[in-house]
Write a structure and sequence with these properties.
The chain has 7 helices and 7 strands; from the N terminus they run βββααβββαβαααα. It is of the alpha+beta class and 195 residues long. It has 2 domains: 132 residues, Bifunctional nuclease domain (Roll); 53 residues. A 7-stranded mixed β-sheet has the order 3-2-1-7-4-5-6, with helices on both faces. Helix 2 packs across helix 3 and helix 6 packs antiparallel against helix 7. The longest helix has 21 residues. The radius of gyration is 18 Å and the shape is globular.
C-alpha cells in the first residue's frame, strides 16, 4: 500500500450544482492540505451523513442491509480504494476477503465510502491520483466560506420556535427523511447555543 494514502471525510455539503447533489470533501490523513471533492447523489449523501452524525434509523438503509448480507456470508470488507478519475467520473473498488482470497468489486466511491464507514474500514486513494486532482488550499477555503455563508443564510431565513423544530425533527425521523432530520437537528443546536 506504499503508493496509496489513507483518506478521511472532511464534510458532506449541499452542492451549488443542483438540488439533488452534494459535495463529499475528502483529505489525506498524512497530508491534510491534499483535499478533493466528489459530487455525490442525495441518497449516498444521506447514507454517509446518517452514519457520521450517528442518527439511529428505525429500519436499515440500503448500505446497512448490504453490510448485514456481507456479515452473514463468508465475506469481510478489507478496505476501499479510489482508483481512478476519468472524464469527470471517479472509480473505486471494494476489497473483500473470502477464505483468504481477495475479491475486488467495482463500485461508485460514494457507495464504497458509505460501506467502509459502516464496516469501520479505511478508505485509500492512489497517491499520484490524489496529487493530480487535489484542489489548491486557497480555492478550497473560499469554497468552504461560501458554503458556510449559504448554510447560515438558510438557517436564519427559517424562524421557527424550538418546539416547532423538534416536532419537525420527530416527523422527519418517522418518515425516514434523515437528510432533513440532520438539518433540523443542526438548527436546533444553533438555537440551543444562542440561549
Amino acid at each position: 500500500m506504499n503508493d496509496f494514502l489513507k483518506l478521511s471525510i472532511v464534510s458532506v455539503s449541499p452542492s451549488s450544482v443542483g438540488a439533488s447533489s452534494f459535495i463529499l470533501l475528502l483529505q489525506s490523513e498524512d497530508f491534510p492540505s491534499l483535499r478533493f471533492p466528489i459530487v455525490i447523489g442525495n441518497q449516498e449523501a444521506q447514507a454517509i451523513s446518517v452514519y457520521l452524525e450517528q442518527i439511529q434509523t428505525s429500519r436499515p438503509l440500503t448500505h446497512d442491509l448490504f453490510i448485514q448480507v456481507i456479515d452473514k456470508s463468508n465475506l469481510k470488507i478489507e478496505k476501499v480504494l479510489i482508483t481512478d478519475f476519468k472524464e469527470g467520473i471517479f472509480y473505486a473498488k471494494i476489497i473483500l476477503i473470502q477464505e483468504d482470497k481477495w475479491v475486488e468489486l467495482d463500485a461508485r466511491p460514494s457507495d464504497s465510502i458509505a460501506l467502509a464507514l459502516r464496516a469501520q474500514k479505511n478508505i485509500y486513494i492512489k497517491e499520484a491520483l490524489l496529487k493530480s486532482i487535489c484542489i489548491p488550499e486557497d480555492e478550497e477555503e473560499l469554497e468552504d466560506e461560501d458554503l458556510s455563508s449559504l448554510e447560515t443564510t438558510a438557517y436564519q431565513s427559517v424562524s421557527l420556535s424550538l418546539a416547532e423544530l423538534e416536532e419537525l425533527l420527530q416527523k422527519a425521523l418517522l418518515e425516514e427523511n434523515y437528510e432533513e432530520a440532520a438539518r433540523l437537528r443542526d438548527q436546533i443546536e444553533i438555537l440551543n447555543n444562542q440561549k
